Amino acid sequence: xxxxxxxxxxxxxxxxxxxxxxxxxxxxxxxxxxxxxxxxxxxxxxxxxxxxxxxxxxxxxxxxxxxxxxxxxxxxxxxxxxxxxxxxxxxxxxxxxxxxxxxxxxxxxxxxxxxxxxxxxxxxxxxxxxxxxxxxxxxxxxxxxxxxxxxxxxxxxxxxxxxxxxxxxxxxxxxxxxxxxxxxxxxxxxxxxxxxxxxxxxxxxxxxxxxxxxxxxxxxxxxxxxxxxxxxxxxxxxxxxxxxxxxxxx
Length: 250
Hints:
Double-stranded beta-helix, 4 helices, mainly beta
């Protein structure tokens, strides 16, 4: 099998991790006269189409967000991973509470898997570098190696669940392998904070990923409720313990 004109002067692979690569369009050429001006300025502001490309060697497996595949080439097999009605209902519940697809198909075989284009940024994370696991913001999961385990975690206290702005349930990834996330901001703008028996206070839901080991609560920004109101900060999200947090500036 030969794939020609995959990479050219306008379409280049810009990053990679393990079996994953990101194909980025330097500018959108499939445009009409009505939106050509808009597309031009989008490209000038680093708004590009990007596609995730995965090379399958017969040894690795791939788990992806349902509906994200655009095309495959080669001897690629797809399974749903559903083990019965009970398992399907459980996956439906998990999908409903995390804004992720209920069923995440698993791909295996030898060939190439190409994802649907996105204007979001595609970032890679080595799950093994997050201790017992990483918790991610709803809707960010795109794909991962088949060796990565994924499950749903809930808030451990009422304050974080009701007031944290991060949702009652989140997807947690653990084990070994690469996780691929869709982000509204590039990796260059994400701030990584490593805590060692310390705490981080964030005024808003700017954390896009955090270590599963960290304790997450919502607290007053000052000792008193009146002081918190007067400071203009009110309630803040607090992460305590040892682990990492990825913060977005917007």
